[in-house]
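Can anyone check this?
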Amino acid sequence: MVAELLPNDSIPVLVSAPDPLSRAGIVSQLRSSHGFTVVADDAATDDGVTLVVADEMDDSVVAEIRMHRARGSSRIVLLISRVDDKGLLSAAEAGVSGVIRRSEATAHNLVAALRAAAAGEGTLPPDLLGRLLHQVGQLQRQILSPRGLTLTGLTERETEVLRLLAEGCDTAEVGSRLFYSERTVKNIIHDVTSRLELRNRTHAVAYAIREGLI
């Protein structure tokens, strides 16, 4: 399939569906809506949106979402028939920008979700949002908190150490400010760089700033 020429105000959309009939119906709907252009797989752009259509959230769908992200698609909307709590969390972990049930996918809802994703926003039905927040809360209480971690993947003292390093303090100054020995500070930095596979303390600080952790 050859990609269409995109108008200046058009949002490029890559449609990935499990069968030709589903894809044809969605493509027809998008072409009748103002502001979208359906593109081929090899024409996907970072400023576009990928729409993944699936019956349920299984390993193959997770792999497909990750494949699209690896190819540069940072905005992914999942149009799905059935999704349980585990599948919802898997979708969030895989990096989807929005989720729509196929039973609720009116032309208006689909267009709104795609436009929201293109604008860097997310879309989730209210009941799914509540279930996702419940799952995140359980993750924090049952898995992360007992290990002294937060949802950022850093402990409170790791966050404090990285914040002071970002302010220009050396390890001795960090230790003095936090009442740790310099050896303890170096061990904390080593733990962070090893766990997150970072090269050194500079890389750790850059990572924390880029990810909004400090």
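Reply from J.R.: I decoded it. The two ends are 45 Å apart (CA to CA).
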